Structures are given as structure tokens and as C-alpha cells.
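Hey, can you fold this one?
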Amino acid sequence: MTLVFMGTPDFARASLAALLDMPGQSVAGVFCQPDRAVGRGMKILPCPVKSLALEHGIPVFQPAKMRDGTTIGHLRGLKPDLIVVVAYGRMLPKEILDLPPLGCVNIHASLLPELRGAAPVQWAVARGYERTGVTAMRMAEECDAGDILLAKATPVGEREDADSLRGRLRDMGAALLRETVRAIGDGSVKPVPQEHAKATYAPMLTKEDGIIDLSRPMIELDRLVRAVTPWPGAVWNGLRVHRARPAPQGAPKGPQFLTCGDGRVLELLEVQAPGKRRMGAEEFFRGYKGGL
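Sure. Predicted structure:
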């Protein structure tokens, strides 16, 4: 099959790598978002998907818009049998969805119809999901609402953070994509409509989502820290909170022990003041002279 791949971050890079290792599949082109400045130096660097595509000599397209007529023209020239989308960050218009004979397939980091949207990994942690997974879906005009092709589940660890979970789902998604492409190729795939009434949503996170509000129950704040690290980051009274945990029974009192809305205590383990290095909370508060 001739494939076109659309994706941008490291999560998508693993899926592109999986396709490149598949015999009988040819990736004719790769689409990713335009390069952006990153890091403290604000250097413009290629995204992980673009870097891998260039290493393999695959043409890369980075349209600013999907509906300007240029993108559909490039795709018609590439003549894909199937378009694969993984964490691209853009909605595809109907004219693109209808272009490839075998349709467009998306790998989504949840067990659809749960957690439709831009941040399924973070919200799975924040909401205390005990199980999540990855889904291969036939794309439709409505976001994350297409028929399910294949899915794989995994438990969410009791103390797992979003970074750890994202890494596991990244690798699971790449393996599921290979299985899905193989099934589409041999005609064995059997699409199953989603149960739309059971849909839940995982909207894009904002900086406000990371604010630690001590009126909330401790368990919610513990999950929050693990969900929003490293982005957008948990913040309490101007301090960036990198790690925290439920305080053990009989824990000593101190400024790193925060009493929450349900009377339980959250212990800060690692914090960072603006413009300073990250450090253990006990060490930070021992030397801190300001007020919080």
C-alpha cells in the first residue's frame, strides 16, 4: 500500500517508525505542523516526525492551513491508498477524508468513546482512571467519533504520571497501528460503530488547569500534579510543584504539608521557585525566607 502519514510529536514518531519497518508498505509523504521555536533559546527545530522522515528521504509537507487548496493538491499527487494520522493536531476536512480509497485511520490514546479530544492521557490520570488504552479508528468529520477498528487496553498505575503513561501508550499505539494496517491490507478489519452516548471528553489543558486549589479533595490534587507535569505544570502560590504525594500517617507538620478541602494532607516533594532550580521541598522551605 501507498501511505501518507500525518503527525507531529514524539508520540507520533513511534508510529511512523513502525510503518517504515513494515514490508510491503510505502510512505510516500509526511505531513506535520510548521516548525516552531522551542526551549529557552527559542530555536526553531524540526519536530520529531519531520526529523525521522528526513532521515529516510521522505518528502515532508507543513501546511499552515488544511483548507487552502494546497494540501489537497499535494495529497492527490502522492496518490495514497490510506492516510494514517497520529497526534497531528489538525482536523481534516471532508475532501481529505474522502480522498484515499481505504480511508483515513487515526491512533487515539484512549479507549474510545472515552476521552475524546486533545489531552486523553493527562485527563485519564487527573480523573483517576484505572484503565485506558489506544484505539485505531476510521476517521470521520466529527472529532474522534469514527468507527473503531482495533483497540488495546492497559491499566493505569496507582502512582503513574502522564509522562509514564504517555510513553506506554505511544509504544502500544505504534504496535496497534502495524496490526491495523495489516488488517486493512488483507481485508480482515471489521469496523464497529462507537457508542456515542457513552462519550467523555478530554479538552486541551490550559495553565489554569494546573493551579492547586486547596479547597479540593487531596486525592484530586495528587492526581492533578501527576497529570499536568511537565505541561502545563502544577502551581501553588507561585511555586511550580514537580512532585507530590499523599502525606503518610503521622507526618510532621511543615510548610510542605498542605491541608486540602477534605482535611487530608498533600505533601510537596519537589518544587521550583520562579527563575530558580528545582529542588526537594524540604530543602527549599528550610532555606526560604519569603512568604507564601
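Residues 162-186 form the longest helix (25 residues). Let me know if you want another pass with a different chain boundary.
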